[in-house]
Amino acid sequence: MNFHLDEILNRRGTDCSKWDTTPEGVLPMWVADMDFPCAPAIVEAMRRRLEHPVFGYTRISDADKQAVVDYYCRHHSVHVRPEDLLFTPGVVDSLLLAVHALTKPGDKVLIQSPVYGPFSGVIRRAGRQIVENPLVETPSGRCEMDLEDLDARLKECRLMLLCSPHNPCGRVWERQTLQAVLDLCKKHNVPLVADEIHCDFVFDGRRHVSALTLEGADTGVAVAVSATKTFNIAGLKHSTMLVPDEALRKALSDKADEIGMSGGNLLAVIATTAAYTEGDAWLEAVKSAVVANRDYAVEELRKAGVRIYPNEGTYLLWLDLRYLGLSSAELEARFVEQAKVRLNAGTDYGSRGDGFLRLNLAAPRALIEEGVQRMVRYLKTLS
Ligand SMILES: Cc1ncc(COP(=O)(O)O)c(C=O)c1O
Known about the structure:
By secondary structure, this protein is an alpha/beta fold. The protein has helices at residues 17-20, 40-50, 62-76, 91-102, 118-125, 147-154, 175-187, 227-230, 246-259, 266-278, 280-303, 328-339, 365-382; strands at residues 27-28, 85-88, 108-111, 129-132, 136-137, 143-144, 159-163, 192-195, 221-225, 239-242, 307-308, 316-320, 341-342, 344-345, 356-360.
């Protein structure tokens, strides 16, 4: 089936964050959504529902819950029951909920930096303290966890937020590493909340290892996922937490009730169920397009002198431009003004991202080629 992944859609004028906040003439390659049309089954399911003109309060049906359960079982060997699910408006909201539910003001929460900006944002906004267990770079330019440091730092923490696969480094954590993380969390009696929103973008024969498939994961583990990232429906706002541990689930669900947080946007639930039940072929096609884009971008940018972390998962490329001696803010501004491409500044992921930029690969090939060539031409002017 042709999913029209080569078609260039004009997104300007749709109030999309990516294009409509980017100056005319500049190619946006930043925020993590895709310039691909979503799966036809999703549009069709929403269209069918729109034919009924009442959009009143809506429940999440048993079939909708089962669609989530079946999808994570089929794709990631995660075995949860419909009653293990909690729904929130987004994965960031799930992280925020976890911080509020599982810690008290002033408590320390562990993150592994550099990491998706809202990890530190939700902790700070909740009045908790951030403890960083920085990722370390191997000589081959791959990032690894520093488990010894993690052991030392978890002692003082009440919660760990894990990003798996990792945004922005594109790292897919191996089972052994993840098991070590969970073992350390258990040793220090710290619940583990894993943001696995990028789990469906894992490449080159690798498999995503969900924290829920680790030994001992029946207690103290919650996983936040969403169809919104995988199926390009982020504007619909809906996500799921998978929480088999009853006590943990109750703590999260009580806090959600207390602060009035709930998922279940009518069209988002319909879209999610369509995605999870009918979206596999579209997802495979998108993954192939992303991998081809990645291979092209890596080859061209490496030739131009850029160091690139190996992309094992996510449709994001973490570009190390420290050799240019510019801050991320300067890099971001110069790329916009001179190269005419907009990327995320590395410092969006914390101060350890300084000197980096993050590139989004989920776009039709022609846009990726245009953007990469603009970057290559600009980089040549600097050498
Ligand atoms: C690691 C990670 N978590 C969460 C989100 C956002 O999730 P949501 O839109 O469901 O809040 C993103 C979006 O890029 C992300 O990369």
